[in-house]
Design goal:
Blueprint (H helix, E strand, L loop, with lengths): L3 H29 L15 H84 L1
Helix pairs in contact: 1-2
């Protein structure tokens, strides 16, 4: 995962990107992308104060969006940290299971040896009984 400083830089980068996009959208819709200086306020019936108010609203919306994005990134970081912790726990359990499997295999090998010895002793006993 990312180091703490890297996470903050990424969050800040996303926030700046969202702010820039919202400012561009605000500029295009309020100032009229492609208009000349003489007809900016006249064509759509708004004055400079209304445009300034609209720009302030867009900036406020951008701030809200940035806060929302930062919260979402924070939640994602928490989920990533929780996932990493769960992954570490799972890896520890896998290691424990592997040890149990190794012990069971060793026990099975020993049990097979004992069974083979019992069979060999039984067959040897039969052979001795048959010789008498």
């Amino acid at each position: 995962m990312y180091a703490k400083g890297q996470r903050e830089i990424i969050v800040f980068g996303y926030a700046v990107a969202v702010a820039v996009l919202l400012c561009i959208i605000g500029y295009m819709s309020s100032s009229g992308c492609g208009r000349t200086g003489t007809d900016t306020a006249g064509d759509n019936g708004t004055n400079a104060a209304e445009q300034a108010q609209r720009a302030a609203e867009y900036n406020q919306q951008a701030g809200s969006e940035i806060e929302s994005a930062a919260e979402a990134v924070g939640r994602a970081e928490q989920h990533a940290d929780q996932t990493a912790a769960l992954n570490r726990q799972a890896q520890a359990r896998v290691s424990e299971c592997q040890k149990l499997i190794d012990e069971l295999r060793a026990d099975n090998r020993r049990a097979k040896q004992i069974i083979d010895e019992v069979i060999a002793d039984h067959q040897a006993g039969k052979a001795q009984d048959g010789a008498h």
